[in-house]
TrEMBL record:
It comes from the Eukaryota. It comes from Brassica napus (Rape). Residues 24-381 form the BRO1 domain. SMART domains: BRO1 (SM01041). This is (rape) hypothetical protein. Belongs to the BROX family. InterPro entries: BRO1_dom, BRO1_sf, BROX. Transmembrane segments: none annotated.
Amino acid sequence: MGCATSACAVGESKNKRSIIQESVVFVLQLRVPVQTDLQRQLKGVASKTTIDRLACLRNQIQLVAEDSGGSAISELRAPLEEYLSLLTGLIKKKDDGMEGCVEFKWKPLGDGGSAELCFTNLWMEMLTVIHMMAALAMAEANSLMIPKNRSGSGHGVRVVSSGCKRDAVDLLLQASGYLEFCTREILPRIAPDIKSKLPDDMQESVLQTLSIQALGQGTEIQLGLAVNSKKATLSVKRRLACEQVIYFSQFIKCHLYSSIINQSLCYKGSEPACHASAVCCFLAASEILGESKKACLSFCLSPPVTRAPPMWGVMKHLSQKIPEIAFKKSQMYGYLLKEEEKVMQSLPELPNFQLSLIPEEFELPEMEAGSFARKPDPFAY
């Protein structure tokens, strides 16, 4: 599956210089419609106006996406929503004549090696459209987190405005809402034999995972904002870090930061036990930091290759502070540890907070008054 901003070198010319995109936010693979003769396939089944609009919108989405490489997000959003409105109307009509009579085809953008999607199910078409909307939201969030101008910022220093970070969080919540809608409203309406043939990134378990991952990445950005804010208290930072642990199922780097902040809040005393616990936390953090760097490098070097972004936010802060503090703490209070192998076992348990970020609720776009009869429930028959 891989991140859409990755670059695969298979089949490329050795003399051709490959551009490996930078990735901060995981981006879904983008698929675009393939031209289909809808006029011939739908003749006598749907009105000519509806057929022409369907064909026009599919062609528009394909051309804009291919010409821009998927970067013209604002130009793609409007035709996608209009196309989705038409699909909703066709499903509402409950027109059995259309189901199975037209082939909807999609292909991965810029990846000639991947197979096309081809199906005759209207629910599958709706799933693919909303999946593309989620991919565009993630791509826009990723672009906001990559600085456009590094001049004057120093080598390797990431400069992204707080406004861009907040907008990226909103887009990740939006993407999570799209994916959550797919698993809740669309996949249950698709026959098991069709679902079994879905590509990996459209399987129910993967969509659920990606929805949660988007929330986790949004929390990570919020944590980065808190780290750089003088007004944010340690309690706020700990809560965000612990929430990120829940989202990522104790993923390496978020567990690292939450352990450190938890230590700072729980062990402020001067008793030997407090110093010993502090040493345990920082030594464990130093070890996990090393594992995190190795995991990041391994991920980036695995095909398809992704260029690792420079450290920023939480990880930049940790990479600078942890080695120094861990060394000082172990030098001063290391003698309090009776057995070195108990370092990891001595870590305090993290508090369990209620998650604050939830997927943005998604509703299907309304149909135009003259197209189809409206009903209060988008799928009420």
